[in-house]
Design a protein that fits this description.
The structure is a homodimer. The first copy, chain A, is of the alpha+beta class. Chain A is about 15% helix and about 45% strand. Chain A is built from three helices and ten strands, in the order E-E-E-E-E-E-E-H-E-E-E-H-H. The longest helix of chain A is centred in the C-terminal third of the chain and has 14 residues.
Chain lengths: ~190, ~190
């Protein structure tokens, strides 16, 4: 096991509407001193949902300001204070797709670029869906719903439009659990 | 196809050593107006490498300031100006593991949280390794090398210590291409 560096000092470099950047002053166990910038997490966690309805999974396509493009992925969102992961998953699923699930299964937690970002997200499988929309009132435009057949799931893995690392991890985790993967005969 | 929002205005909110945050003033095709904050990408791209040596893949465990923890993952890094993805992959692999590869294969590109971040990373498979260390001189401590048997790859997918979404996506892409995945009989 590695001994964590000692945090000699830490401070907020900047705090904007969505981003809080900290500076850490660290002393490693071998005596080396370093300064690092990192982005602090949101605090209450976040959830990404893989919704399954019959023999289809439900994807959303929406505008993403980071890449200035429309991206295909799974519904997701940050937890509000006091929410369980199930409550966050259900609220976000209802807001983004109009469905609620009778059954939520925790898959795993993942992080993104941990050298710089603190945040992690819980990947969740949602099954037994029923229509139960929840209006947020704050979307600039309706989110497009895209249905994808489970029998064609390997094509989704290689689709260039489905390119968020967390979505690929979520799909793989769900596919492993539920046996959706049909690998090409050549690699079995 | 969706029509991209019109960018009415954009400006830098803050620019630190590692983070550049922009504010976009957008007009959606339906007339809705929104402001978004996003983090601009590094500019020259980045590469994550899945190195394979014989019947093992090579992982690194290093301190990550974002999560303030030691994390298990793949070597990676940003491209320097003028580098091809092969050159970046080779330099980062040599710096972090001490190996160079005779063969680099582009797997795919992924992004992370595209609602907020512009950056993407190229996932690359590295094969036919030979010892050829390259010292950076700027690491606070040696990076730990971890070897993982390809015959046990499904355990790596579910290991909680292997938890970066981009690493999971890279491993899946490499495993699909090279046929390392042995799915449990129950899901075939």
């Amino acid at each position: 096991m590695h001994e964590l560096p000692q945090i000699l000092d830490r401070g907020i470099v900047v705090d904007t509407e969505h981003f809080r950047i900290e500076r850490l002053h660290l002393k490693f166990s071998n005596g080396q001193i370093r300064y690092y910038e990192r982005m602090a997490g949101g605090g209450s966690g976040a959830v990404m949902i893989v919704p399954v309805m019959g023999d289809e999974i439900i994807l959303v396509r929406e505008y993403c300001a980071g890449t200035n493009s429309y991206e295909l992925g799974f519904p997701k969102g940050k937890s509000e204070s006091g929410e369980s992961w199930q409550q966050t998953a259900d609220r976000e699923l209802r807001e983004e797709t109009g469905y609620s699930a009778m059954k939520y299964t925790f898959l795993r937690s993942v992080n993104s670029a941990p050298s710089f970002f603190e945040a992690s997200i819980d990947l969740v499988l949602a099954e037994d869906l029923e229509e139960k929309p929840l209006d947020t009132g704050d979307e600039p435009e309706p989110i497009e719903i895209v249905r994808w057949s489970l029998s064609n799931i390997s094509a989704l893995f290689s689709d260039p439009a489905f390119r968020e690392a967390r979505c690929l991890a979520a799909l793989f985790a769900a596919a492993s659990l539920r046996g959706w993967l049909r690998l090409p005969a050549s690699i079995l």
